[in-house]
Design brief:
The complex is a heterodimer of chains A (421) and B (163).
Chain A (H helix, E strand, L loop, with lengths): L17 H6 L4 H9 L2 H10 L12 H6 L9 E7 L8 H8 L1 H15 L1 E8 L4 H16 L15 E6 L9 H8 L23 E5 H5 L1 H7 L1 H7 L7 E8 L5 E6 L4 H8 L9 E5 L8 E2 L9 H6 L8 E6 L4 H15 L5 H18 L7 H12 L7 H15 L1 H10 L6
Parallel strand pairs in A: 1-2, 1-4, 2-3, 5-9
Antiparallel strand pairs in A: 5-6, 7-8, 7-9
Helix pairs in contact in A: 2-6, 2-10, 3-6, 5-6, 10-11, 14-15, 14-17, 15-16, 15-17, 16-17, 17-18
Chain B lengths: L6 H12 L8 H12 L4 H11 L3 H10 L11 E6 L2 H5 L2 H12 L12 E6 L11 E3 L2 E3 L4 H12 L6
Parallel strand pairs in B: 1-2
Antiparallel strand pairs in B: 1-3, 3-4
The chains are: A alpha/beta (421), B alpha+beta (163).
The complex binds flavin mononucleotide (FMN), iron/sulfur cluster and FE2/S2 (inorganic) cluster.
Chain lengths: 421, 163
């Protein structure tokens, strides 16, 4: 079995408390960092680790940190993305629930590396219990002198603020998140400027996912090279795979980057429920292009999935068996993107609406033969023509579901009924 | 009715505002506070929050109409938010929603006349491993079945508090 880094805390009672975290070696790394390392050295170690953003885009984390301007006198901010709203993804919830202080230690190290004295955790509004836990544990850390002024007796100071979102998927996108944090509606910004130059409150800001930050203490403790070696080339370390759908053991699995999808489904997640046959898998959250049962020997890392035209994204693995109607699955996904489009760009706002309507019509037995091609045309027109990647995220499922399961779409439109149910 | 925070809420408001480098950033936490204080955020409350944050009322209205979680109308004492995301759909959430709706006698999006129950269909709640699932007020309720729905509804109708 591969080594469990964060998930070993999931089985320890009260692992979310300062005491238990410290009993297992917690808060030793930040002490050493503050005494012995410069911010630059921390960033260099993270670069060496090949840690890539685990929120979805997979951008190399250390490199992102290095974009923070050194000569800018404005305050710097660290913003932790705990919006966790890509359908099929639920790992950050486990990290917050059970590795609360590991996340906080990661925040301390990352904030120190980029020169921030304030960090915000932007958490989805529905995570009421997780927000409460964070607030309570931040208080506990503060009481011990681990947050606030002169942390661990050093000259470094840091405050962490928990900020609750209010139910909008788009606020997971980093610039929409920053708008939301500033008290506005979550409309994504045009990039550039990138947040590292002009982010929260027009100041240099690093936005990182919860899980990304949570690996930082271990990387610094055991070294960037050690972490890099756990994964594949240019895809460092391990990560969480959130597995749901028609498997025997849905849940989160912390595994090396590059673990074959087949192994994740058939070994870790226990194989197919009720012994049914596998039909399709979405490998990286609902926006990732769908894979057929023949494509599951792919290695689950950013580059291998990109090479076969899909993406690792947030590593939300959604498994569908032979009883699944692919047309309905696409309808559910498209309805989501339509509902969550912020409405700023016409191709996304209108395109997702049309596609939603067409799919609904097809499912109700009112499909027309030309609907199949129309769906693809709509998706192609959204793709690449929008401010933020939600447009692409809506287009990928349409393009890939229709391409790989065209027969089913045509059957629905021709026979005006479902080939499955 | 004039809208104003209690002394305790006012104190909380000051604490919240102090956490941010800009006053407007306190928008969402203050709206949550207002929801708790007044039950829901009516147009009058929007104006009040705007005055506290020193922004034009339209800025608050924009936020209230963009996000879905903060109540703009009175909601039932028990708010069922049933997930309709892909994994929950694969797990049969459609039947769960239908069953709940029949048991409570209200459709998704509706609140019962006695203000006891509201049903809302929501997008993925990031608990797909326990599909089909829902959020009942603050808490997630996992692995729903029609039987489980019956038990919950029975308890709530008899006035028993959940959890
Ligand atoms: C529509 C959309 C939704 C997103 N949702 C999330 C999310 O819920 N959580 C997250 O960490 N990143 C999300 N992202 C990615 C963020 O924009 C950003 O890349 C990420 O937070 C950076 O952190 P990382 O480099 O550590 O992954 C989303 C992106 C898009 C386009
Ligand atoms: S692509 Fe869609 S969600 Fe993104 S900014 Fe444009 S309209 Fe908004
Ligand atoms: S689809 Fe229902 S919790 Fe994710």
């Amino acid at each position: 079995m591969p080594e469990k880094i964060i998930s070993k805390f999931f089985d320890i009672p009260n692992s979310h408390t300062v005491e238990v975290y410290e009993q297992h070696g917690g808060y030793q790394t930040i002490r050493r960092v503050l005494k012995e390392m410069t911010p630059d050295q921390v960033t260099q170690e993270v670069i060496k680790s090949n840690l890539r953003g685990l929120g979805g885009a997979g951008f190399p984390t250390g490199r992102k940190w290095s974009f923070i301007p050194k000569d800018n006198p404005k305050p710097k901010y660290l913003v932790v993305n705990a919006d966790e709203s890509e359908p099929g993804t639920f790992k950050d919830r486990y990290v917050i629930d059970h590795y609360t202080h590991g996340l906080l230690e990661g925040i301390m190290i990352a904030a120190y590396a980029i020169g921030a004295h304030k960090a915000f955790i932007y958490i989805r509004g529905e995570y009421v219990r997780q927000a409460e836990r964070l607030v309570e544990q931040i208080k506990a850390a503060r009481k011990k002198g681990y947050l606030g002024k002169k942390i661990f007796g050093s000259d470094y100071e840091l405050e962490v603020v928990v900020h609750r979102g209010a139910g909008a998927y788009i606020c997971g996108e980093e610039t929409a998140l920053l708008e939301s944090l500033e008290g506005k509606k979550g409309w994504p910004r045009m990039k550039p400027p990138f947040p590292a130059i002009e982010g929260a409150f027009r100041c240099p800001t690093i936005v990182n996912n919860v899980e990304t930050i949570a690996y930082v203490p271990t990387i610094i403790e055991r070294g960037g090279e050690w972490f890099a070696k756990l994964g594949t080339e240019r895809n460092g370390g391990v990560r969480f795979f959130s597995v749901s759908g028609h498997v025997k053991k849905p849940g989160v699995y912390e595994l090396p980057m590059g673990t074959p999808l087949r192994e994740i489904i058939f070994e870790h997640a226990g194989g197919m429920k009720n012994g049914a046959k596998l039909k399709a898998v979405v490998p990286g959250g609902s926006s990732a292009p769908i894979l057929t049962a023949d494509e599951i020997d792919v290695k689950m890392d950013f580059d291998s999935l990109a090479a076969i035209g899909s993406m690792l994204g947030s590593a939300g693995v959604i498994v569908m068996d032979e009883t699944t109607c692919i047309v309905r699955a696409l309808y559910v996904v498209t309805r989501f993107y339509h509902h969550e489009s912020c409405g700023q760009c016409t191709p996304c706002r209108e395109g997702t609406g049309w596609a939603d309507k067409i799919l609904h019509r097809i499912l109700e037995g009112r499909g027309r033969p030309e609907d199949v091609d129309n769906l693809v045309t709509i998706a192609n027109n959204i793709f690449g023509n929008t401010i933020c990647p939600l447009g692409d995220a809506a287009a990928w499922p349409i393009q890939s579901y229709v391409k790989k399961f065209r027969d089913e779409f045509e059957y629905h439109c021709r026979e005006r009924k479902c080939n499955i149910h | 009715m004039s809208v104003e925070f209690s002394a305790a809420a006012r104190k909380k408001f000051d604490e919240i505002v102090n956490q941010y480098p800009q006053r407007q950033a306190a928008m969402l936490p203050v709206l949550y506070l207002a929801e708790k204080e007044f039950g829901h955020v009516s147009p009058e409350v929007e104006v009040y929050v705007a005055s506290l944050l020193q922004v034009p009322p339209v800025k608050v209205h924009e936020v209230m109409t963009f996000y879905t979680l903060i109540a703009r109308q009175p909601r039932g004492k028990y708010h069922f938010q049933v997930c309709r995301g892909l994994s929950c759909d694969l797990g049969g959430c459609e039947n769960i929603l239908k069953h709940l709706s029949e048991r409570l006698g209200i459709k998704p999006g509706e609140t019962s006349a006695d203000l006891k129950f509201t049903i809302t269909e929501v997008e993925c709640l990031a608990s797909c491993e326990t599909a089909p699932m829902m959020q009942l007020n603050e808490d997630y309720i996992d692995n729903l079945s029609e039987k489980k729905i019956d038990e919950i509804v029975e308890k709530l109708k008899n006035g028993k508090v959940m959890k």
